[in-house]
Amino acid sequence: MQKWIMSGLITIACVMAVVLMFTLPGKEQVAEEEKPTMPEVTMDAAAAEAVVKAQGCISCHGDQLQGGVGPNLQKIGSQMSAEELYTIITKGRGGMPSFKDKLQKEEIANVAQWLAAKK
What we know:
transmembrane helix; heme; transport; iron
């Protein structure tokens, strides 16, 4: 009886291992989640400004990006690159929420480039 129980437990463990091998993310997927790749876009300042206003960014960063609850972004381009800003907007940071499910990658890239140009 004990042999059957042990055999069953080993079989279940092997099945679980196989399932995990095919369902866990690979190294590439984990790396992409850590640092998302910014798509190539041509900056459109008017569209970026519209996205910032529509998404409520001004409620934390101010209507002139002067800061408030969130940091001042008026000269953020002298401190951070477009890629760094893209990662923060995509993933969120601190009290800032992630926008990866709210905006398309191209919209986030456009906003990141627009902010990076503010020096």
